[in-house]
Design goal:
- The chain is α+β, with helices and mostly antiparallel strands.
- The chain has eight helices and ten strands.
- A four-stranded mixed β-sheet has the order 1-4-5-8.
- The mean pLDDT is 96.
């Protein structure tokens, strides 16, 4: 629970490549548990890198011990990818702020001890957004709805309402007005986690497909002997290796202190697309059995789709990559 957090705060002090490997292996068994850890780690890393010493001492030992979870609250009912235009507000009061607004798709939200939330402290646009570390037990925080999802059902997802939630000045993460940039920094690291999650789902699809292709008999031979099946398995293996290399490269650049946001977007885009495509192929390899709950590939199929949506959609990742090459054209 504290893979990338320094040992001084109860973490392991490992690097992001190690983190990616851990997420991939967990997602190979259960993608919902993997995203629970991925978002938790994203917040831990944000506190470790951006937080004050008091914030680190207050939150990180609890989070790294596994006794508490961290949640992320950015998206709102009417604000998704256009996050710079969020509407939740933080009003200045003596000694702190009052937080008001609604947040949607809050991973770990109903089970967390602390929420990293984005609220508007200034004018319109990104410059008016600040990040806050909010104690989940604070009066005025309401879990409005637990979200029923297609997949990753072991991951807690909810809507949170903030009704004049009082926080002190020391709840601001970083400096006032830098919250949007801090959120983007956190999301860049989080995209490595989701790319690794997609790799894990794809690895599970490959494992299941190879096993089934060897065991299932048709026309007097194992179905893996037929090119219609064997080529599917081959393409899974190739795309898995490509997705892994893109993911590990982004993680290695992060560890080296070099720019990695574009590489993280490339990894997430490719790995999530491959996971979704090959999860469908894994169901196809299993035939009618693949459409039943008797085999896990139907779950992989349901779990894979979300990797193209959260932590920035595939369309957003393509925008990031394109702008790195073309700039902002008008």
């Amino acid at each position: 629970m504290g893979i990338v957090v320094p040992e001084a705060y109860g973490g392991v002090g490992a690097d992001y490549v190690s983190y990616a490997l851990a997420i991939e292996e967990i997602a190979r068994v259960d993608a919902g548990t993997a995203v629970t850890l991925s978002v938790h780690t994203m917040i831990c890393n944000a506190i470790s890198k951006l937080g004050s010493e008091a914030q680190r001492r207050r939150w990180l030992p609890r989070l790294t011990s596994g006794n508490a979870l961290a949640a992320f609250a950015l998206t709102e009912p009417d604000v998704g990818s256009d996050a710079a235009n969020l509407r939740a507000v933080a009003r200045r009061v003596e000694g702190g702020y009052l937080l008001s607004g609604r947040k949607q798709w809050c991973t770990n939200g109903s089970q967390s001890a602390v929420v990293m939330g984005m609220f508007r402290t200034g004018g319109a646009g990104a410059a008016g957004v600040s990040a806050f570390l909010i104690d989940s037990t604070a009066p005025g925080i309401v879990v409005e709805r637990l979200t029923e999802k297609l997949g990753v059902r072991t991951s807690d997802t909810c809507d949170l309402a903030f009704d004049d939630v009082r926080v002190d000045d020391d709840a601001v993460l970083g400096r006032e007005g830098e919250g949007f940039g801090n959120a983007l920094t956190a999301l860049s690291g989080g995209r490595i986690g989701i790319a690794a999650q997609a790799c894990g789902i794809l690895a599970a699809c490959l494992d299941a497909s190879v096993t089934f292709a060897k065991q299932r008999m048709a026309f007097g031979k194992a179905i893996g002997a037929f090119e219609g099946v064997s080529f599917k398995v081959a393409r899974m293996a190739v795309d898995l290796e490509a997705a892994r290399l893109l993911t590990y490269r982004a993680a290695a650049l992060c560890d080296a202190g070099k720019p990695f946001a574009v590489e993280a977007s490339k990894a997430k885009y490719f790995a999530s697309t491959a996971a979704r495509l090959h999860a469908a192929e894994a169901v196809q390899v299993h035939g009618g059995y693949g459409y039943t709950t008797e085999f896990p590939v139907e779950r992989y199929y349901r779990d894979a789709k979300i990797t193209e949506i959260y932590e920035g959609t595939s369309e957003i990742q393509q925008i990031i990559v394109a702008r790195s090459l073309l700039g902002k054209l008008r």
